[in-house]
Every structure is written in C-alpha cells, then in structure tokens.
Amino acid sequence: MPVLPLSLVNSSTASSEKTYLRMAIGLLVLYVFPYVWLGEGAHLTIHDNLDSDFLYLYLLKITGTAFNFDLNTVIPNAMSGGNFTGIPRSAFRTGLNLEVLSFWLFPPYTAQVLNFTAVHGIGFWGMYLLLKKHILPAHQWAFTRVAIAFLFAVVPCYTVHGASVSGQPLLLFAFLNLLTQTSRWTDWLIIVLFPFYSFFVWAGLFICIALGVIGLISQFRHRMVNWPFLLGLALLSMVYLASEWELIYAFLNQTYVSERVEFDYAQLRSMKILDSLRRSADLFVWPMFNTGAFLTLGIVAVSGLAAWRAFQRHNRRTVWWLVSLLIIAGVFCLIHGFYHYLIVWLGDGSLGMKFRVFQFDRFYFLLPTLWFCLLALSLQQFRANGRWNRLVLAGQLLLMIVANKEWCLNVGKLAGFVTEAQHPSFRAFFAEKQFAQIRDYIHRPQADYRVICLGMHPSVAQFNGFYTLDSYQNNYPLPYKHAFRKIIAAELAKGTRQMRVYYDAYACRVYLYTAELGMNYLFGKTQTESVSHLQIDTDALKALDGEYVVSAVPILNAAQNRLRLEKVFDEPESYWRIWLYRVQ
Q: What's the distance, CA 294 to chain centroid?
C-alpha cells in the first residue's frame, strides 16, 4: 500500500483542523445568538449579577465616576441619607478596567452582550492555543483540542468578572511559552492586558500564587532561575497592583471600616468537620456558580480510568500528572470548605481581620481551567478520534448544555416555552418605562429624596436613577449597617434565625427584610403575596431621610407604620406591579 508523503498528511490535517475551528466558531455564534436576537427581551441571571455586580458597572457610568480615582469620592446613589453620604468609590471596580470602559461607551445591555461574546471567545481561543502548543500538540488530536476548547468556552462563568476565569488558559499559554523559552512579543502583551480585563479580588491574586508555584517547581527541577518567567510574573503582579491600586490601598490602609469586619463565619458556616467536608465535596463535584458551575464527575471518572491505563503502561509521569491535578482540585476545595476555621481561630486581631475582610479561599476560581486541562491529559491515554474519546466529549457537551441554565432559558424564550412571569427579561426586570412613571409622579430631583424597596431588589430602583437606602454591596462603611438595622429590628426579631444571621453576620444585602416575605426579593405582578403585619421603625427610616417605600407587594397595615399609599403603577412590559407609599 503506498505511503502518503508527510507534507500531504500535514496539509490534510491542517485543512481538517481549520474545518473544526470554523464549526466551533459557528457554534459559538449560535451560543451568542439568543442574546442578540432577543435583545433586552433576553433573561440575564439575577443572583450576584443584575442585583449587584452588573449594577455596579452601570452606577459608575450614571454617576460620572467611572474614571474617578480620588479616594475621597463617594457614590451617593445607595446607602446615603441622614449623616451618611454613600459608598466610597474605591469599593467599586477600578476605572482601569475594560468592562468599566465598555459600560461607559455603550448602553448597559449592549455592553453585557459585547462582554459576553468577548469572555467566551477568549475562553475558546486561549484553551485552543494552550492545548495545541503544550498539551495536545500532535496533529491527530486536532478534533479533540478544538472540541475541548469549545467546551471550555461555554463554561457558564459570570460575564461581570471579565476574563477572570475564561482568560486563564490564554494567560497560562503565555507563561508556559516563557517557561519553555519559546515566547513571542504577543505573550508579553497577554500578560500586560490580562489585569485590565479581570479582577484581582476574585481571581488575580490566586492566579499569581499558582503561577509562582509553577515557577518554583520548574526552578527546583532544572536547578536554575527562569528569568523570563520570573519577569513575566513580576510584570503581571505589578500591573494588577497598578490597575486596582485604589481597592488594594483601601484594604491595606483601612481608609474606612468595612462591614466585612463583622463577618461571623462561626454563624455563617457550620463548625462541624463533616459539614465542611460535605461543602468541599460539593465544590469538587459542582464548582462555584460564579466561576461556571458544571458537573465534574465525568471528568473525574475519565481521569481515573486514564490514570489506570497509564499505570498499566508504566507511564509514571502521566500518572503523576493526572493524580496531582485531582489532588490539587481537592486541595482547592478543602481550602474553601475549611477556611472559616482559620478565621475563627485568628479571632479579632489585625491578621484575623485581614483574612475576614479579604476572602483568601478563592482558589476555586482556578478550577474550570484545571478541570479541562485534566480532561485533555486524560483523553491522551485513549486513541485519538476513537469512539471512546468522541463519546466522552459528547457526554461533556450534554453536561455543559445542562449547566448553561441562563442560555437554556433564553432558548426557551425563543421557542415560546419560557414566559416573563417565570423568568423576567432584562427589560421586564429593570422596567424603565414604569420607573419613569414613578419618577414623573414624584416630580422632584431624584437626588433630593431617598426610597427603600420591599419585595424586590433595590438594584431595579438604582438602575433607574433612584437613590436607595437599601442595597446589595460587598463593601461599605460599617456604621451604615447598624443604622439600617434599626429600621428592620422588629422584623428580624419576628423572622427566622437564618434571616437574623444573614443580616447580623453577613449584611451584604442591606434589604427591607420582613418575617412574612422571608428572604425572597422577587415578587412579580402575577403573584398574590401581601404583607399584613409589617413592623418597621419609621423614625429610624426618617432619620436616614427615607421618604418613599417602593413595594412589589401591597402593605395591608401601611397606616400602622405611618405609610400612605400614593399610587399603584402597572406597565405591560414590566415584571412588577409597584405600590408607592409615602412616609408620614
């Protein structure tokens, strides 16, 4: 049988790989399509997104503080009233961030879709380059590396974190090029740009630590310092420090006392060893939601089988890599599961406060990249393009589709299976027309009065320019937590222990809690809930200059709380029916 020249084989492989790449890019276009076609009719995740991080980016635009680097600047649109002036600008995302720039340049939904496309596109290209250069370089693995790159690209990580998760393979690709002395100028460009499209608090610190460990291992193995790698790590760290200097400076110098100093992990988390192990195991099987949650059991099973095959072939190096990556994933999960023991042990000293305010357990942000690198290494132990590999990749694709809850909901909206009442769209959630009616009805400059929300996220009012006493903030001055608590003290006393602990030991959600509504903040107009026994401290509310209650449910005993119903607002496109009460 004639043997084809190597050049023809390589040409054919390159042509096939280009076809695979075109197919993957086409699938990514389909992945983005529902958000483009539906426009503001698309559903976006509310938890830790529309209720907070997304809103923070938009607040920087509407307050004109996106590129304000003055540490004395405050944002008055939330938590201002009485003696309180608002939230320090340094508690928000740095102006030297590409997401902040995108929200400043474009309307908020457009910025979201652009970032969504960029985040997942970077994930695909970065993982593809990493696999092709350093993990699956042989030509026969063309389909597998493109498929894994696509699977990684659709990890449902939070867009508001930029490339904190999805950009890790691209950054690792650049650093491995430095480590193997095969770098180009583009690798240095990747290192310089990465901090401007990621977040130091969520992932940056832990990426730097992980890269430092890789550098130390390399130095130990080769008994020499890899100066390009060391310089790259120093450059990455310095650019992070420069790009997020306000937040880091505020943390180190405590420019204000944050509510985070009162985080009580002994109440927030169980101190039982078994519960901590269960928490770690849950994270191992199903990574944290904001990093991109997906079931990992398939990858664990394949890696275990691959390790066994490598062991039978006496391939100790591969066994070491597979087992080590599984152990590292386990360690990351255990750090998260047992981190609160360290904080409780450190107590209220200076070091304990630092570990309480800054969550040093977020190594789990590295897990999605680790899991898919492990999948690639595992599939190497089986025949390239074989039935087993394709079956594993197909199975993982199904798992990723299931994991993409937001995307599936939008496909359901396209097909007409998902209604606004079930899952509100961006347009329905923020209800701009309805809140414009409320603004016009009050007919005063929004900066001149304060509102508080009931039965809904205050981010809705904030998005529409209202100044709210309640808010979801990860970092704000501690005295405000205590002042606001006076308003809801009676309701917290009537409510569940979980509600009291959530406020007293956490209090990132400074909301108008009620015993009747519990910890539900999403009461749409198709629901029939009401509040019959509201008990708030109206004097404390007035002390913070609260003048209006924007409620998603009717308050049947409003008069007993010195509240007067002004008007009920209903609007066809809105998810809400709003009862507007005036504080007497």
A: 14
SS (H, E, C) 468-481: ECCEECCCCEHHHH
10 Å Cβ neighbour count for 320? 12
Which residue, chain included where needed, has tokens 């020499």?
224
CB 250 within 8 A of CB 256: yes
pLDDT at 251: 77
Please report the pLDDT score of residue 354 as a whole number.
Answer: 86
Compute how many other C-beta atoms are within 10 angstroms of the C-beta atom of residue 267.
Answer: 16
Give the CA distances from residue 513 to residues 78, 452, 519, in Å, rounded to whole numbers and listed in that order: 17, 11, 7
Give the pLDDT band of residue 5 (cuts 50, 70, 90).
low
**Which residue, chain included where needed, has tokens 């009461």?**
523
Closest alpha carbon to 127 in 261, 28, 257: 28
Residue type, 131: L
User: Which residues on adjacent β-strands are paired with residue 81?
Assistant: 84
- Distance of alpha carbon 166 from alpha carbon 161, whole angstroms: 9
User: CA 208, CA 7: separation in Å to the nearest integer?
Assistant: 41
For 239, the 3-state DSSP assignment is helix
SS3 459: helix
Q: Which residues contact 21 (CB under 8 A, 6 or more apart)?
A: 128, 146
Nearest CA to 569 among 390, 441, 402, 388?
A: 441
Task: Please indicate, yes or no, whether the overall pTM of this predicted structure exceeds 0.85.
Answer: yes
> What single-letter DSSP state applies at residue 16?
H
Residue 398 has pLDDT above 50, yes or no: yes
Buried b (16+ CB within 10 A) or exposed e, 401-427: eebbebbbbbbbbeeeebebeebbbbb
d(CA 260, CA 510): 13
- Dihedral over Cα of 495, 501, 502, 507: its sign: positive
Q: Name the β-bridge partners of 453.
A: 550
pLDDT above 60 (res 430)? yes
- Bridge-based pairing state of the strands 546-551 and 577-583: antiparallel
Closest alpha carbon to 147 in 29, 28, 30: 28
